[in-house]
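Handout, page 2. Input:
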Amino acid sequence: MGEITGLAPGGCYRKENMIKKLYIGNLTSQVREEDLLSNFKEAGAVISVAIIKDRMTGYSKGFGFVEMETIEGAQEAIKMFNGGNLDGNTIVVNEAKPPREQGGTRPYQGGGKSNAGGYRGGFGGRSGRR
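Output:
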């Protein structure tokens, strides 16, 4: 068997026309997806832009992702924008890491000891009597 070439970090086969996803960090809350799109399209064709927001408040978490059409465009975007200034902040631009797998790795650990004796009140187990 021949050697497999072109492995991306994490062991995934990298095709020449693979979409490249970039992590964009240290964004201010005022930065919009349109701002990222207008900047990153200078480096190459952009497929998608997403700023990650808090589920409860809807406010930006300060980071996002940009998918570039080509590896060359992604590399150019890293060169152009990593360490650059956007809305007063120095931003971080690098290759996005694959998402971590969720759940299934640890067994259920429950909510405490099964023989704990029930509710003890809210004062560290003291009954409140002196």
